[in-house]
Each structure stands twice: as structure tokens, then as C-alpha cells.
Design goal:
Elements lengths: L2 H5 L16 E5 L13 E5 L5 H8 L1 H5 L14 H4 L2 E5 L4 E7 L5 E3 L44
Antiparallel strand pairs: 1-2, 3-4, 4-5
Length: 153
């Protein structure tokens, strides 16, 4: 654990899943600048850059990551991470709503203009899939990516 996962309560910020026993990573909100390790630029997400929520933060920038504050445009001022709120969904810690991150490793409830609630994230349970087709492949283990869709071909 580190000061970012401590700030985030050792849980994924977007779903509240405890990190113990899970693959997780600290995500840079400003893309393409992994050298910017200010606390306001970092959030804890389940998965890696290619799995679970961390993957979604990279693949669904405009529809999910940016609207929820998990990403900030790399063209924005460096200080944007201090004023762009992040949606936290951690009911066990009493954190459900928008929070501002600071460079001292803290967070405060967002008091600005009302923002629309963020859509519910992809739950960890949703990473498994099942098929009713006889002889279908077994479901992947949790933490191996998002559910696959099985449609008609």
C-alpha cells in the first residue's frame, strides 16, 4: 500500500471493492504523463491498464473516465487535477459522491455547482459471464477483464 491507496481507503474509487486479494493499480488522471505523481493526479482503480476499471479509464475516456473525473485532458493545465472533481463510490467508507483531490494527499467533498451523478461502474461480479449454449467455454476468473458478449454471428 502507499499514500494514494491509503487516501482511497484501500478500495477502488469507482466501485468500493476492497483491494485485498485483488489486482489494482494507481491510475494517472492526466494521460501520457506518468511522471506527474502528484496525489491530485492519482486514483486507485481495480485492474491494470488492460483489465477492469483501469482499462475502462483508458478505453472509455470521453464516455466514462472524463465525466467521472478519472481522467483529465492532457491538454488541460497541470492544475486541472486540483479543480476537476472525482466520483467516489465507496459506501462502506461513507464516500458516495464528488470529491476534490489535493496535492497533500487529501480529499474534500465537492461543494461546486451540482453535477449529475456518475453512472454505476462495472461491478467486479460482472467480470464473469455465462452462456446457455451447450459446450460453451467456462467463465473467466474474476479480474480477467470485462464480460464478453455472445451474440448471433
Amino acid at each position: 500500500m502507499n499514500h494514494i491507496t491509503d487516501r482511497d481507503g484501500a478500495q477502488c474509487v469507482c466501485c468500493g471493492t476492497p483491494l485485498a486479494g485483488q489486482r489494482y493499480s494507481v491510475h494517472h488522471r492526466i494521460y501520457g504523463n506518468r511522471g506527474d505523481n502528484r496525489p491530485s493526479n492519482l486514483v486507485t482503480l481495480l485492474g491494470t491498464g488492460t483489465t477492469l476499471h483501469h482499462m475502462q479509464a483508458h478505453r472509455r475516456k470521453s464516455t466514462w473516465a472524463i465525466p467521472n473525473g478519472y481522467a483529465v485532458s492532457r491538454h488541460a493545465a497541470r492544475e486541472a487535477t486540483l479543480v476537476v472533481p472525482v466520483w467516489y463510490y465507496q459506501p462502506a467508507l461513507g464516500r458516495v459522491g464528488w470529491f476534490l483531490l489535493d496535492d497533500d494527499g487529501g480529499l474534500t467533498a465537492y461543494q461546486g455547482p451540482e453535477l449529475a451523478p456518475a453512472p454505476r461502474p462495472f461491478a467486479l461480479e460482472a467480470t464473469a459471464w455465462t452462456s446457455t449454449r451447450p459446450g460453451a467455454a467456462p467463465a473467466p476468473r474474476a479480474g480477467r477483464g470485462l464480460p464478453r458478449t455472445r451474440g448471433a454471428r
